[in-house]
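Curious: can you check?
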Amino acid sequence: MSLEGRPAPDFTLEGSDGKRHTLKEYAGKTLVLYFYPRDNTPGCTAEAIGFGERRQQFDDLGAVVVGVSKDSLKSHDKFICTYDLNFVLLSDPDAAVMTAYGAYGEKVQYGKTTLGTIRSTAVIGPDGTVIKQWAKVPKAADHPQKVLEFLQKQVG
C-alpha cells in the first residue's frame, strides 16, 4: 500500500547521536527516511555512503537524511565510524516503525520467502505528508542519486 499523499506514520526511535527522534521534530523540513536491512553489508554500505556523499546537496535543498534499520545503536556507531557517515541512523529493533512504513515483511531472497527489512524510502514533506515513496529499492548504490534528483525537481 502506497503512503504517498498520506500523513507519515509517527515514530519515536533512538538515534546514533544519543537522542530520541520523533517525526514532529522534522516538522517544517523535508525528511528522507530510508530503511535498510543491515549495517556493514555491501548494498547497505554503498547506499549509506551515497547518501553521505550527497549530504551537502540534500542540506542545500532543505532535506534531512535519516537511515533506519533493526541494528543496535552499538552497531550503528561502528558503521558510522567505519565509513565516516555524516547523518543520523535510528534503531528500530522490533521493526514497528519499519512495519508502519511498509519496510518490513515478506520478501523473496535467493528464491526463498523470508521475513525481513525491505529496502525502501519515504520522502516526507514539511507538512508531515509522504510526498514520495520507493516501496522497493532495486539498486542500493544508485538510490541516493535518484532521491536527490526527485528533490531537485520538487524544488526546481
